[in-house]
Amino acid sequence: MPCLNISTNVNLDGVDTSSILSEATSSVAKLIGKPEAYVMVVLKGSVPMAFGGTEQPAAYGELVSIGGLNPDTNKKLSAAVASILETKLSVPKGRFFLKFYDTKASFLS
């Protein structure tokens, strides 16, 4: 199950977070090639955060997936999520960082 975890210093009060979650879910599913039903998106706002020495709007994200990640896909995912954050939260694309984790499946015995 891909999981996108986004933290931002932007206050989310009065923000339509449903549209952010929906667009992010759709983008991750499409670009990784997994069903939307398996994608989780977590969005945390008002997180104390500085980027480049300022506390202007910024965001940090981590995307964990079992397969489906590669340099080309990661570039597209980063661009898609940055675009959503810029449009919905006014976080400039240059003030967003996304870390990728391609993990292996593990099965409990």
Notes on the protein architecture:
- Helix 1 packs antiparallel against helix 2.
- The model has no long low-confidence stretch (mean pLDDT 95).
- 32% of the residues lie in helices and 25% in strands.
- The two termini are 19 Å apart.
- Strands 2-1-3-4 form a 4-stranded mixed β-sheet, covered by helices on one side.
- Helix 2 links the parallel strand 3 and strand 4 (96-103).
- With 109 residues, it is α/β, with parallel strands linked by helices.
- The chain has helices at residues 17-32, 71-89; strands spanning 3-8, 40-44, 59-66, 96-103.
- The protein contains 2 helices and 4 strands.
Entry summary:
The chain has helices at about 15-30, 70-90, and strands at about 5-10, 40-45, 60-65, 95-105. The chain is an alpha/beta fold.
Keyphrases for this structure?
alpha/beta; 109 residues; four-stranded mixed sheet; 32% helix; single chain; 4 strands; 25% strand
Poorly predicted segments: none
Helix content: 25-40%
Give the biggest beta sheet: 4 strands, mixed
Overall geometry comes to: globular
Overall structural class, as computed from helix and strand content, comes to alpha/beta
Q: In angstroms, what separates the terminal alpha carbons?
A: 19 Å
Mean pLDDT: 95
How many strand segments? 4
